[in-house]
Design brief:
Distance between the termini: 48 Å
Low-confidence stretches: none
Structural class: mainly alpha
Radius of gyration: 18 Å
Number of domains: 2
Strand content: 5-15%
Number of strands: 2
Order of helices and strands: HEHHEHHH
Strand order of the largest sheet: 1-2
Largest sheet: 2 strands, parallel
Length: about 120
């Protein structure tokens, strides 16, 4: 599986979860559901998600994964590019050097326990 295809499938899964969460929050707040932003770091997966035209490269993908195209077209979500260096989710998906791990951990707001105990 190509990285573009993997990102596209992951984006579709994230879109499903995001739509469910945005609908739940709208119901809890008694508000109208608004579009949410899905951030992806793969330019090719973003292009594939935003383009409603089927290409040779995308026609072999299972139809269920084209759900993300429908969501973008219906205005249920917007897709934005996030540079790989700013991708906070890497802490959950990749082996990282200690420095990068600490940097992403701080961005998530997680505190190191040993520091907390010293204060």
């Amino acid at each position: 599986m190509s990285s573009c295809e993997a990102e596209y499938i992951a984006g579709t899964t994230a879109a499903c979860q995001g739509i469910w969460l945005s609908q739940l929050l709208a119901e809890l707040k008694s508000e109208e559901r608004t579009a949410f932003i899905l951030k992806m770091d793969s330019q090719s997966a973003i292009a594939l998600s935003k383009n409603p035209v089927f290409h040779e490269r995308s026609k072999h993908k299972d139809v269920r994964f084209h759900f993300i195209r429908e969501c973008v077209g219906d205005g249920k979500l917007d897709i934005e590019h996030v540079r790989t260096e700013e991708q906070i989710a890497d802490i959950l998906t990749k082996p990282l050097a200690r420095e990068r791990f600490c940097e992403l951990r701080d961005k998530l707001g997680v505190i190191e326990i040993s520091k907390e105990r010293q204060d």
